[in-house]
Structure formats: structure tokens, C-alpha cells
Design brief:
This protein has 178 residues and is of the alpha/beta class. Helix content is 33%, strand content 21%. It contains five helices and eight strands, in the order E-H-E-E-E-H-E-E-E-E-H-H-H. The strands form two sheets. Strands 2-1-5-8-7 form a five-stranded mixed sheet, sandwiched between helices. It has a three-stranded mixed sheet with strand order 3-4-6. The chain is globular. The relative contact order is 0.15. Bound molecules: zinc ion (2 copies).
């Protein structure tokens, strides 16, 4: 599955390329483009946050065999949750991920490594959703649901064997439909 990462707005240089290079198979980070989506249209001034569902709607639909993931610095929410690290259209090949809550300190060398690792884990999580995976009970599986930034550190940027099996089944089903 080819993954196009679309990095929105103000982000550290090479962030998209770093995340793209760290994605586990069967995902291949093919492109990390600096994208222009109308994020301001999705901004909720009363919450000072971006509506993740609206942002997801703004993402262009991927062509077959591709997944689109937008990476943003904007703080995302989905009612009734106070915030989310990301959101995906289940099985629809599109997702958004935010590093607003995942950030560890400033973007100096050590903090950026810690922040990038969290961002990779949550990107892998959303990628799983984009191809139809649901949440997993295995604590260190990328598909385990994390409610706090520190909980993301307990996960691996990879799928447990059961999720990987399910992932291959989902991808197989999609390619048979094509
Ligand atoms: Zn999830
Ligand atoms: Zn799992």
C-alpha cells in the first residue's frame, strides 16, 4: 500500500520524509509533500481547535492502491472528545494525524526524536484504520487505543500478528474488488 503523506502548514523540515521512511510494511511511504488544505475552514474558534472530521473531508480521495494521510500541527477534536491524535475514514484510505498533543518539549534533537516516534506510531495507527482495522487489545500494538500522549510511548510503530493477519486479509479483499 503506497502512502502519500501530506504535511500541512508549519512543520519541522524533513518531518514527512522521516515518518515516511519509518512506516512498516505493507505500507510504503512514497511521498511526503507539503500540502495546502483549507485548514482554516475547519477551525472552530470557540474551541480554538480544528474539527478532524471536516479536515478529513478536505483530503483528496486516493487512487486505488494508495492511502492519503495528512499530518498537521493543528490540535484536532471530534465531538464529544476533548481532543484526538488522529482520525480516519474506516477502510476509505484517508486519515489525518496531529502532533499537537504528541509533542515532547521543543523541536531540539532529543525531543524531536521522541515526538517523531509518537507521530510514527499514531500514523501507523491511522493507516490501520484507513484499510479497515479496528482497535486492538494488545498493549504494544499500534492499533491499541491511546488516550494520553505518554500511552503512545508504550506502543510499537508496528502491528501485532493478529492485526497483521487482518491487515493482509483486508488488503486482499480490496485488491480483489478492483
Ligand atoms: Zn483508533
Ligand atoms: Zn493488534
Amino acid at each position: 500500500v503506497n502512502v502519500r503523506l501530506i504535511v500541512l502548514g508549519e512543520s519541522p523540515p524533513h518531518l514527512g520524509a522521516t515518518v515516511a521512511a519509518a512506516l512498516p510494511r505493507p505500507f510504503f511511504g512514497r511521498e511526503a509533500t507539503q500540502g495546502a488544505l483549507p485548514v482554516s475552514r475547519c477551525y472552530d474558534a470557540s474551541r480554538a481547535q480544528v474539527d478532524a472530521s471536516l479536515l478529513l473531508d478536505e483530503l483528496p480521495d486516493p487512487r486505488p492502491g494508495w492511502v492519503h494521510i495528512a499530518i498537521t500541527a493543528a490540535d484536532l477534536f471530534v465531538p464529544p472528545l476533548a481532543y484526538v491524535f488522529g482520525l480516519s475514514a474506516l477502510g476509505a484510505g484517508k486519515g489525518v494525524v496531529s502532533w499537537a498533543r504528541l509533542r515532547v518539549g521543543e523541536w531540539d534533537e532529543s525531543a524531536s526524536a521522541a515526538t517523531t516516534r509518537r507521530l510514527v506510531v499514531e500514523t501507523v495507527h491511522e493507516l490501520g484504520h484507513t484499510v479497515g482495522l479496528i482497535h486492538c487489545v494488545v498493549p504494544d500494538c499500534a492499533m491499541h487505543r491511546s488516550l494520553w500522549p505518554e500511552a503512545v510511548d508504550l506502543k510499537q510503530p508496528a502491528f501485532c500478528p493478529a492485526c497483521l493477519d487482518s491487515l493482509h486479509a483486508q488488503i486482499g479483499a480490496v485488491s480483489r474488488m478492483a
